[in-house]
Amino acid sequence: MTEQTYLGVTSPISIKESDAREKEVTETLMEELREQKTFESEEEARTREIVLGRVDTLVKTFVRTVSLQRGLSEAAANAAGGKIFTFGSYRLGVHGPGTDIDTLCVVPKHVSREDFFEIFEPMLKEADGVTEVAGIPEAYVPIVTACISGIPIDFLMARLALSSIPEDLSLADDNLLRNLDDRCVRSLNGSRVVNEILRLVPNIEVFRDSLRCIKLWASRRAISSNVNGFFGGVAWAILVARVCQLYPNAVAGAIVSRFFVIMHRWSWPQPVLLKQIEEGPLQVKVWNPKLYPADRSHRMPIITPAYPAMCATHNVTSSTQQIIIEEFKRGSEIVDKVIIGAASWSELFKKHDFFHKYRYYLQVIASTGNADLQIKWAGTVESKLRQLVMKLEYVESLILAHPFTKGFDRVTYCLSDEEMRLVAQGDISETIAKRTKEDIEGKEGASAVHSTTFYIGLQIAPKQPGATGPRRLDISYPTTEFTKLVKAWDKFDESTMGIVVRHIRHSGLPDDVYDPGERQPKPAQKRTKGPGKSSHTSPEMPNKKIKTSVFVHFYL
């Protein structure tokens, strides 16, 4: 084949049509995906379209409002425009029930990022049917999250060097990136990357069906989270697209089968590319491991296809790489059995065993006394968890630090300062856990504590032959450095935010990490206190210190 007749950086491995068996397993795969409820209903699809229509109107109103504030005439303000572009799973066509919509708001040059958070965010809060609005201006890609008519939406903003945004604007032109700050380039990148992925696959329907399968598998196996050091949605899409390029005439069942074989055997850190990396018109960094030491350190580089090329997987650590490769191996073994009829697709989607797998875990508990503040504080703590994992990887006798991909939110109703102290440390008695909001209404000193608990599984090296007595695992440095890091957040307030890091045995894990009926009965336990202590201030109690545990070492 000549270079012009195929998609990708190499020629296909095979251009054969799929055989009858591959078509048969594709049918059973699609049945299983429907059974697993990965497709949204027609009603939800209509709701999404209505919501996006409302968002488009809201963005145009926002641009018009700012334009008038800047002194533009009525006519110029009306012509300033503003446009939304979707990206992520919705734009790729692989979203499911309850999935968020990633939305890019493109605005003209006279609308600033400050306007986005100071004017657009309050406009969202005041709009009908909008809840859970939270702006994170200091994020690597600044974002406003919200829920509109029950549909979660993530808003990014990009400010172009144009006086107005026409309705027929396309983001394909690299020259649109001229004179933009890095945050705008990163915000635009999401939409540009998705458009390029769809352009670079030989069959969009096969790609979508295959990606829907891989996304469900990654979610069930708890390895889908860019922030925690695994792969995010864009990375999974690029991997599936690459396999589609290598087998351009294969059906989805065959693509999924080849996906696991190829990825299990991939020679990391060889990068995964959908096209050759291109230079462009800007003085911006393009991924290049020969030039940049940071790019050389990427363990599993998956490179975005739109200019400027970036690594979608720069967060992968030594631990998360081991976990991902192990899951590729498991997937490969199961799909081999599916192809020969010795297993069903449901086996591939079996739930992870994270909360059964390790003897010891770290709990990282972020707490406040306010629901809106909690969203921001928990998000900040989660964004730094990867730093804790990387520091733990240097601890002697610790083989693996396995972060779980989501936090567990809880609102606890406390009647006293002492109860608040205990709750902030993760010590929640059955009595407190059962208490409702009504139970504390009108009672002096009563308060709600909002907490989000994250978990890291610890795989510890086996005891050396001949070794006697208990061993001590010293994690004082990683935990102390982590708490310093999160407290360095410029909006951290000792009087309203709590952070606790403590170890917990498998048998001491709370019930809320398990599905109903999943947990084995807990043995009766004596309550023990950890040796290491540090202090911070209790949620919503400016002058009342609480001692909270940062466990610096424990005995195995």
Model description:
The structure is a single chain. The chain has 556 residues and is α+β, with helices and mostly antiparallel strands. 39% of the residues lie in helices and 17% in strands. It is built from 18 helices and 14 strands. The strands form four sheets. The chain has a five-stranded mixed beta sheet, with helices on both faces. Strands 6, 7, 8, 9 and 11 form a five-stranded antiparallel beta sheet that branches. A hairpin with a 6-residue loop joins strand 3 and strand 4. Helix 2 crosses helix 5 (113-126) and helix 6 (182-199) packs parallel to helix 8 (233-246). It is globular, with a radius of gyration of 25 Å. The termini are far apart. Residues 524-549 have low confidence and may be disordered.
Structural category is alpha+beta
Low-confidence stretches: 524-549
Please report the distance between the alpha carbons of the first and last residues. 60 Å
| Proportion in β-strands | 15-25%
| Sheet with the most strands, sense and barrel status | 5 strands, mixed
Number of helices: 18
State the shape.
Answer: globular
Compute the average pLDDT: 90
Rg value: 25 Å
Number of strands: 14
Helix content: 25-40%
Widest sheet: strand order? 1-2-5-4-3
Give a summary of the structure in a few sentences.
This protein has 556 residues and is α+β, with helices and mostly antiparallel strands. Helix content is 39%, strand content 17%. The N and C termini lie far apart (60 Å).
